[in-house]
Amino acid sequence: MKMETLRDLLVHNLKDLYSAENQLTKALPKMAKAATNPELKKGFETHLSETQGQIERLDRVLKAMGETHGGVKCKGMEGLIAEGAEAIEEEAAKEVRDAALIGAAQKVEHYEISGYGTAIAYAELLGEADAVTLLRESLDEEEATDKKLSALAEGTVNSAAAALVA
User: Fold this and answer.
1) Per-domain residue ranges of the chain
2) Rounded CA gap, 104 and 149, in Å?
3) 20 to 30 A from 2, CA-CA: which of 24, 33, 66, 102?
4) Is the pLDDT of residue 16 over 60?
5) Continuous H helices in the chain
6) Helix or strand run (H / E) with residue 147
7) Which CATH class is domain 6-151?
8) pTM for this one?
9) pLDDT single digits (tens) 37-83
10) Measured distance CA(21)–CA(51) in Å, rounded
């Protein structure tokens, strides 16, 4: 894909986000299954539903711009998901695994927040008001998920893992 204009770069970023979100839909059920904290498990399940909505919004933005969603594989998300898979596969106490899952999930959230923020900035400069609205909705969801993960980690999960110190 040629990237000669800011619009080209925006389209590339949108396709990258589309790929990232699709990869995440395959990882979230595994994370939910591995989580033992009920709130964490429910959070992963809720985020799966939100992620599916984010994919739909990205598809709408791309279609409105006369573009398709294929042709880009998000290698960043691929790596983050691999790290999350390692957290699942490690031999660990359930409390420690839950803390590791939150850490992995927050890395994903921060990556997505960055991606949506960048896409919004480009779309604003290009006058793509409808795209900005849709992308901002996804960004708001990602930021809310990050805050929920922080609250869960700080409220119960990390202290439960810390209590295991011998």
Assistant:
1) 6-151
2) 10
3) 24
4) yes
5) 6-34, 38-64, 75-89, 94-125, 129-152, 158-162
6) helix 129-152
7) mainly alpha
8) 0.94
9) 999 999 999 999 999 999 999 999 999 999 998 889 999 999 999 99
10) 6
